[in-house]
Design goal:
Elements (H helix, E strand, L loop, with lengths): L12 E4 L5 E5 L2 E2 L11 H14 L3 H16 L5 H8 L4 E5 L5 H8 L4 E6 L4 H8 L5 E5 L12 E6 L9 H10 L1 E12 L4 H14 L4 H20 L3 E4 L11 E4 H8 L11 H12 L9 H10 L2 E8 L3 E8 L2
Parallel strand pairs: 4-5, 4-7, 5-6, 7-8
Antiparallel strand pairs: 1-2, 2-3, 8-12, 9-10, 11-12
Helix pairs in contact: 8-9, 8-10
């Protein structure tokens, strides 16, 4: 335990449990990650994301307008007022993989619950710097596969764009569900399996970039982002005459940048975000060791196996967003 005057903020120190385990507090955030218990590849994941979030310290604010509405639409809420209605009665909420705390902050302002934000990387200290003052929010550096919470502890768990970066997506979802109370809800997003040429190129490029240093991969990401921006600025469309199922290509008009992005390789560009945020989005794809892609059939099977009743599902080219209720 840490001894401190009531109400005083503890920026650094050492937490000691009754069992004798010790956890260091750094940058205001308790570090409860056990590196000696990491599965294969988790160390690389921590290093990649920690470096990324330290590099993009203002990512939460510069992307908030885009990502908050995207979140609300994908999970079927549409607006923060509808999210607030959904969260009525929720007492404990977990944002698993909170990064800069964007979703955790959204849960705080739309509920009366105690909100916990956890992330395996050191970038969570940025969240503490920006939103650590919120009285109902608690931020912890922790591994979502070894959560420091009792089973059935949470009424709602949000895990958006995270578990596909863990060693095993299905296993990680299962860990989260053990901490969800019966009748509670979980919202999670996983990457969707893409068209065959895109899958081939992604695997080919990533076979090199995941082994680069963060700086080296950032340079590759910058070059790819420049191409994505240039293609977007063409404002050109292509009219695909008919479906080509063997390539996963659908008939219809599509922007040239989107066509290459969805069917060839990831060269992300979004005009609503600044340059750094676009580069980080590409880096987020090319550098982390794990970036699993899945099908809707897989997601439905996981939910059946884990006792989750799907209440809303949204399948887009980028990924699959699922809101489900734990039945028992």
């Amino acid at each position: 335990m840490v001894d401190a005057p009531e109400g005083e903020v503890i920026d650094s120190g050492l937490l000691r449990s009754p069992s004798g385990a010790e956890y260091r507090i750094s940058g205001g955030v308790p570090g409860m990650v056990r590196e000696d218990k990491f599965e294969e590849g988790q160390k690389e994941t921590v290093e990649s994301f920690s470096w990324k979030w330290e590099k993009a310290q203002h990512y939460r604010k510069t992307t908030e307008a885009h990502y908050v509405q995207w979140y609300l639409d994908r999970y079927g809420f549409g607006s923060e007022s509808n999210l607030a209605k959904f969260l009525i009665g929720k007492e404990r909420i977990l944002d698993a993989g909170t990064a800069h705390g964007r979703d955790a902050e959204m849960y705080v302002r739309n509920s009366k619950a105690t909100v916990f934000g956890i992330d395996i990387g050191y970038g969570i200290r940025n969240a503490y710097r920006d939103i650590g003052h919120l009285p109902s929010l608690h931020l912890i550096q922790a591994d979502l596969t070894r959560l420091p919470f009792a089973e059935n502890f949470f009424d709602f768990i949000g895990c958006d764009q995270v578990i596909h970066h863990t060693p095993n997506t299905r296993v990680s979802l299962g860990h989260l569900v053990t901490r969800l109370a019966p009748g509670g809800h979980i919202a999670f997003y996983v990457y969707k399996k893409k068209a065959p040429v895109r899958e081939f190129c992604d695997d080919l490029i990533r076979s090199q970039t995941v082994h680069m240093s963060p700086d080296e991969c950032m340079k590759v990401s910058e070059s790819i982002t420049k191409l994505g921006k240039a293609l977007s600025e063409l404002k050109a469309t292509i009219d695909v005459p008919e479906d080509i199922p063997i390539l996963g290509i659908k008939a219809g008009k599509i922007d040239v940048q989107r066509f290459i992005y969805w069917y060839m390789f990831k060269c992300y560009w979004n005009d609503s975000m600044d340059w750094d945020a676009n580069v980080i989005t590409n880096f987020d794809w090319y550098h982390p060791l794990h970036a699993h892609r899945h099908t809707l059939q897989e997601v439905r099977q996981w939910c059946d196996e884990l006792g989750l009743e799907i209440q809303h599902v949204n399948e887009q080219e980028s990924g699959i967003s699922t809101l489900a209720r734990k039945t028992a």
